[in-house]
UniProtKB/TrEMBL annotation:
Its main location: membrane. It is found in: Cell membrane. It holds the Pfam family BPD_transp_1. Signal peptide: none annotated. Residues 72-280 form the ABC transmembrane type-1 domain. Keywords: Cell membrane, Membrane, Transmembrane, Transmembrane helix, Transport. This is ABC transporter permease. The chain crosses the membrane at residues 21-48, 68-94, 106-130, 159-180, 209-237, 257-281. Belongs to the binding-protein-dependent transport system permease family. CysTW subfamily. PROSITE patterns: ABC_TM1. It comes from Paracraurococcus ruber. It is a multi-pass membrane protein. CDD domains: TM_PBP2 (cd06261).
Length: 288
């Protein structure tokens, strides 16, 4: 008798059934389709629809005009500086929040969450009051003898970066904190008992374990910062044009729908690239 005849008959794979709980997502998906996907498709259609029909003139202007290329570069620079500053301040803050106990942790949580309850407009106006010529910062430096006359700090790139980092810092702290709090705090101590130096413990133990939170925080802060509108408008005005400000002027002032839609499509592509890249990197880190 052949081996084929002795082999047991193959059992058919069980049919996959739709989980009834998955149906609970349908209302949310329908809502997103109406308020997000449909307007997004209309926006993309506007970017390729000119006065005489199909046209790529909007993308030619956005990607070919040195002025708009400079605006894209300024937005990317703003996103990178904001992300780097938020990472340098938020990484140790996330560790302090994860390792704090009792009342100290409650206090640190309040310092992180309370700024999220305040409008971005209010925070940006607050920075304007602090940094103006008769603001508290100039007043303090004058009374301490650090300067002889008020220094112009408002409507400068330094003021813009400070305000942006202040606005988006919690979005860096919270993802890193969510990862750090799951780490075993005894691992660096175990590495120290094996003779590892503090730098070695950080680069080979602490940093690799916290990278998923870093990647999440970086992608979130960069995507938000590169699309910022309110803070650059209030702290810099028209001296520092971003993609969002160009879109607003194109839609509201120039009534150039194709230009605004093309700039919005470029901004969407940048944000999608960052999010997809972060997702791929997260998977690779998870596999390791």
């Amino acid at each position: 008798m052949s081996a084929t005849a002795l082999a047991a008959p193959a059992t058919p794979a069980p049919a996959r059934r739709l989980d009834p709980l998955a149906l609970l997502a349908l209302p949310g998906l329908a809502f997103l389709g109406v308020v997000f996907l449909l307007p997004l498709l209309l926006l993309l259609w506007s970017s390729i629809r000119g006065a005489e029909g199909f046209s790529l003139q909007g993308y030619v202007r956005v990607l070919g005009d040195p002025y708009y290329v400079g605006v894209i570069g300024a937005s990317l620079q703003l996103g990178l500086v904001t992300t780097l500053g938020a990472l340098l301040l938020g990484y140790p803050a996330a560790f302090a929040l994860a390792r704090a106990k009792g009342g100290w942790q409650v206090l640190l949580f309040a310092l992180v969450f309370l700024p999220l309850t305040v409008s971005i407009i209010v925070k940006s106006f607050g920075w304007g009051i602090v940094l103006r010529r008769d603001g508290i910062l100039n007043w303090a430096m004058l009374n301490l003898g650090l300067i002889e006359r008020p220094v112009r700090m408002i409507f400068t790139e330094g003021a813009l970066y400070a305000g942006m980092i202040n606005v988006f810092l919690p979005f860096m702290v919270l993802p890193i904190y969510s990862v750090v709090r799951m780490m075993d705090p005894r691992l660096p101590d175990a590495a120290a008992t094996l003779g590892a130096s503090p730098w070695f413990r950080f680069t080979r133990v602490t940093l690799p374990l916290s990278l998923p939170g870093v990647v999440a925080g970086v992608s979130l802060v960069f995507s938000l910062a590169v699309a910022a509108y309110v803070t650059p408008s209030l702290l810099m005005g028209d001296r520092y044009m971003t993609m969002s400000m160009v879109m607003a002027k194109a839609f509201l002032n120039l009534r150039d729908w194709q230009l605004g839609a093309a700039m919005a499509a470029v901004l969407l592509a940048v944000a999608a690239f960052v999010v997809v890249g972060a997702s791929v990197l997260q998977r690779r880190l998870g596999g390791r």
